[in-house]
Amino acid sequence: MEGIDVTLLRIMRYREKLDNMYSALPMGALDEKTKILLDDFKQYFKEFETHIEIDEEAFNSWFFAFRHPTLQGEPKEFFKRLLARIQEPVDDDTAKGIIARILELDFATVSANIIKTYEGGGDIDVAKALQEALETHESQLDRKVKLPWVQDSIYDLLEDDMRQDGLKWPLDCVNASMRPLRPGDFGIIAARPDVGKTSFIAHVAAFMAPQLPAGRPVLWFNNEGPGKRIVTRLYQAALNKTISQLLAMRSSKTIIDEYIKAVGSIDKIKVLDIHDCWNYDVSDMIKELNPGLVIMDMIDNIKFGGNMTNAGSRTDQVLENMYQWARIRGVKQEVPILATSQVSAEGDGLQYPLMHMLKDSKTGKQGAADFIMMLGMCHEPGMEASRFIGLPKNKLSIEGGPKDPRTETIFSFHTSRFNEPKTTGGII
């Protein structure tokens, strides 16, 4: 342990390193004498404002004469020996390795305390607490050990913007307004209840599934109604069939073969019921199943731990944290994520609800999304099947195309498809 602490002190003897890392150091994993010196380093830099590193002669005089004048005997000799050892420089790779080891030690200490509390009969959800500790540890490693420097060439970035690869939508009006979905994209699809949001998502999933490479499925996280209802919708959307037509296909035993032909494989779209699951459960499933597209239906109903909960109150800030969590999952796992949400009552009957009409949020959810797609409808007689597609937020817009398509589509209730009028050349 002493070797780790000595190397840490060598790193922290520089003002910049101390300023950037002191607040994140796991003090519980450090020796008491190391903590004393780190605190003294802070005070030294406060008093010697022009110094950018610990000056050995100045620090030793200040340390023994003013900071700890009562030190005598062996304790004083110990600090003399220790201070003599911390003057050696440390290369960047060694520094990162030491910080990683200290963070690992802190994680082990926190985990041991959690288990000790559990074994002692404490009121604790041990699995939840351990998972939160692991997520905190991984986050600290990302911030303190890995250098998040974006070094992409501007030529590569511009070429990336001009690419047309990615997941295309089943509606031409959307494809004309927004580039295809790519890893890390995060969008919200919202509608009032009973507008056809689940059918729309089923149509999107069935259309995008065959565009994904083998081994990269669509994951549909469902925490509303029974997942088996979604599976039926997927078969309808993929095959463009009504329930009675599916029953006829079942009789002829062709339904599964046709579904495989339409989406790529029998398990290309995986529906997972996640009622009562925590956010870390969802993270684990994404890591394990390596999807090419994730649908979160709905994030609002996922149980969140740690800093997400804000004592359980459902504020705009809490929702922003939840949606930001989903966005970060997409970036880290290199997968596009579509989240469903509801439109508040003020958007009822509007063809094109505005983005501030997302339920329980005026700015929180909106700030996390690359795009927000609204499904609107009109209550006028004769327009029962009309559904209106709007993109009130669209950071994936195509140069030269309409940023917000504002297009009427026809909802085919019995086949779970959204079709554009044939005059627009929509994908039917």
Structure, briefly:
With 428 residues, the protein is an alpha/beta fold.
Give the topology.
Layout: H1 2-12, H2 15-21, H3 32-47, H4 56-67, H5 73-85, H6 92-119, H7 126-144, H8 154-162, H9 172-175, E1 186-191, H10 197-208, E2 218-222, H11 227-239, H12 243-251, H13 255-263, E3 269-273, H14 279-289, E4 293-297, H15 316-333, E5 337-342, H16 364-368, E6 371-376, E7 386-394, E8 407-412, E9 417-419
Parallel strand pairs: 1-5, 1-6, 2-3, 2-4, 4-5
Antiparallel strand pairs: 6-7, 7-8, 8-9
Helix pairs in contact: 1-3, 1-6, 6-7, 10-11
Query: What's the CATH superfamily of the largest domain, by name?
Result: P-loop containing nucleotide triphosphate hydrolases
CATH architecture of the largest domain: 3-Layer(aba) Sandwich
User: How many separate domains?
Assistant: 2
The helix/strand series, from N terminus to C terminus, equals: HHHHHHHHHEHEHHHEHEHEHEEEE
CATH topology name of the largest domain, in short, is: Rossmann fold
What profile does the largest beta sheet have? 9 strands, mixed
Main sheet: strand order? 3-2-4-5-1-6-7-8-9
Helical content class: 40-55%
Q: Report the end-to-end length measured between terminal Cα atoms.
A: 67 Å
Based on secondary structure, the structural category is alpha/beta
Give the mean pLDDT.
86
Content of β-strand: 5-15%
Radius of gyration, taken over Cα atoms and rounded to an integer in Å = 28 Å
CATH class of the largest domain: Alpha Beta
Shape: elongated
Low-confidence stretches: 423-428
Number of H- or I-type helical stretches? 16
- Number of DSSP-assigned strands: 9
